[in-house]
Specification:
Number of strands: 8
Number of domains: 1
Helix content: 25-40%
Distance between the termini: 8 Å
CATH topology: Nucleotidyltransferase, domain 5
Strand content: 15-25%
Number of helices: 5
Order of helices and strands: EEEEHEEHEHHEH
C-alpha cells in the first residue's frame, strides 16, 4: 500500500497519509489527514487568475475614431486558466512529496487532468508515483476513501 494518497482536481489538492495499525488489538489500518493537508485555490475574480485586462479593439472604420469599438474577446482564456491551475497543482504535489521525503504514493485526479499533471511533475516526484487513478475524489470523506482503497487490500 502506498504511504501517501494525493487527490487532485484543478483547484484542490488533498494529501492523505496511510497509517499502519499500532499496538492496540482493535486498531486497523486507516487514513489520516492533518489540518493544512488540503490546499485549495479558487479565484474570486478573473483578474486574480490572469494578468490581462479586457481590451477594446477597432472593428472597422478610420483610425482615431472612438466609434465602432468592441470589447476584446477571451481567446483561449479557459486554456490559459487550465494551464496555470495545472502548474499550481504540480508545484503543490511536488512540495507535499518532498516534505514527506519521497514516499511511494498514489495520484488520483480527473481524466482530463491526470496525464498532463504527470508530465508536469519533476522526475524525482514522478518516480514516487506508484499508482494512478482517474477519478474526482477531492470531496470524498475519509471514511469513504478508506472503504474504497483499504477494503481492497
Amino acid at each position: 500500500m502506498e504511504k501517501l494518497l494525493l487527490i487532485c482536481d484543478l483547484g484542490r489538492v488533498r494529501a492523505v497519509h496511510f497509517r499502519e495499525p499500532g499496538g492496540l488489538p482493535l486498531e486497523q489500518p486507516h487514513f489520516h489527514e492533518e489540518e493544512g493537508d488540503t490546499w485549495e485555490f479558487r479565484p474570486d475574480r478573473i483578474t486574480e487568475a490572469t494578468s490581462d485586462q479586457a481590451g477594446r479593439f477597432t472593428q472597422s472604420g478610420p483610425l482615431g475614431r472612438g466609434a465602432g469599438m468592441s470589447f476584446g474577446e477571451e481567446h483561449h482564456l479557459t486554456d490559459e486558466l487550465h494551464r496555470k491551475a495545472l502548474l499550481r497543482i504540480a508545484a503543490r504535489v511536488t512540495a507535499v512529496v518532498e516534505e514527506a521525503d519521497y514516499p511511494p504514493c498514489r495520484l488520483v485526479a480527473p481524466e482530463r487532468v491526470l496525464p498532463r499533471l504527470l508530465e508536469l511533475l519533476p522526475p524525482a516526484v514522478a518516480a514516487c508515483v506508484a499508482a494512478t487513478e482517474e477519478a474526482d475524489l477531492t470531496k470524498m470523506s475519509l471514511r469513504d476513501l478508506e472503504h474504497r482503497f483499504l477494503a481492497a487490500r
